[in-house]
Task: inverse folding
């Protein structure tokens, strides 16, 4: 039986207030104003009794801020300190959705990460601004730059990306962003939950699911293909797909990998869920393989404006969501294609 004290604190892993063992404690108090005011500090190391998550808690209180109550037995007026609690890591009232790692745009992920950090400090203004920015970025990635926000929304509806019903649902979220920016209004936690539920749902439907469907198409074998995974197996990663690729496509991939690795001794390889990253000081090539359609795609760290785009196998993807990093997408179907883009690969390496 542990002799540690047990107190209640918020647990990030359990997502609620739970019993915690106090594993370590430091106390300090000071007097001010001729000792008429006294402050108290408690610094605690706590461990959740359920999940064993560790946290650091700083508690502060002052004799100027007391809670008075009547003792039910003696009827005397009693006073208790009101403690202000700060927990590190900060309290996470809303965690990113499980599908968030599948968002095919680094900028969108970065904006969202900053929103979740602002929620930990109860910065509701920032979270509301950020939600509006997410919609701006989503419009750019799905229908392109239309000049202004209203034109972008109109394009979403005109191109069938959202229905009138979805636009009606989205309207209060947009108005919340306007109110936060121009009228000093900040939503409550419950209202902010509604805002984020709406925006995240739209991101998942317009951006995440189409890319995952494209990944699925590349993983499903054709009539003459080899089944790469059996039912109930884990989701295939890009590494799995490379290992199960048809021999001819695997040879193309291996040729590309050799070309990338031979650029210098400072090249490192970093397998990710949806792509394989090749890095120098930063990523200079992100590679994907599609077994069903028998192509390899590479995203290079090159400004598309400085390249003569071959529409047959190149795309400017600055305004198109995709996995990995790089603004120029190149589709490779043969070893000869690798030689043709050799100078572009070298340039991307040099830029990184």
Result:
């Amino acid at each position: 039986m542990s002799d540690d004290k047990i107190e209640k604190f918020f647990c990030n892993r359990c997502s609620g207030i739970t019993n915690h063992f106090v594993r370590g404690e430091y106390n300090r108090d000071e007097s001010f104003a001729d000792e008429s005011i006294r402050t108290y500090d408690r610094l605690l190391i706590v461990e959740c009794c359920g999940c064993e998550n560790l946290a650091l808690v700083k508690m502060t209180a002052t004799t100027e801020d007391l809670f008075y109550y009547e003792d039910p037995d003696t009827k005397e007026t009693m006073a208790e300190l009101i403690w202000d609690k700060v927990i590190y890591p900060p309290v996470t009232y809303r965690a990113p959705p499980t599908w968030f790692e599948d968002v095919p745009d680094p900028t969108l992920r970065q904006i969202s990460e900053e929103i979740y950090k602002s929620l930990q400090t109860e910065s509701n203004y920032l979270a509301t601004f950020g939600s509006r920015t997410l919609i701006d970025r989503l419009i750019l990635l799905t229908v392109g730059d239309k000049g202004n926000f209203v034109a972008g929304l109109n394009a979403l509806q005109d191109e069938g990306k959202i229905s009138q019903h979805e636009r009606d649902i989205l309207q209060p979220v947009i108005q919340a962003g306007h109110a936060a920016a121009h009228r000093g209004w900040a939503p409550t936690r419950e209202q902010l939950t509604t805002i984020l539920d709406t925006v995240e749902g739209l991101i998942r439907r317009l951006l995440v699911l189409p890319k995952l469907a494209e990944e699925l198409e590349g993983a499903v074998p054709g009539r003459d293909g080899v089944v790469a995974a059996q039912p109930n197996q884990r989701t295939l990663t890009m590494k799995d797909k490379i290992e199960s690729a048809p021999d001819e496509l695997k040879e193309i991939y291996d040729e590309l990998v050799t070309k990338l690795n031979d650029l210098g001794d400072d090249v490192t390889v970093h397998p990710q869920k949806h792509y394989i990253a090749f890095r120098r000081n930063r990523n200079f090539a992100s590679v994907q393989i599609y077994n069903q359609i028998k192509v390899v795609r590479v995203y290079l760290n090159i400004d598309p404006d400085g390249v003569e785009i071959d529409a047959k196998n190149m795309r400017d993807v600055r305004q198109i969501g995709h996995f990995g990093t790089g603004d120029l997408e190149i589709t490779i179907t043969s070893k000869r294609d690798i030689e043709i883009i050799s100078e572009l690969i070298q340039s991307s390496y040099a830029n990184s």
Notes: The first strand starts at residue 6 and ends at 11. Confidence is low (pLDDT under 50) at residues 227-233. DSSP finds nine helices and 13 strands in the chain. The chain has three domains: 6-88, 98-219, 238-351.
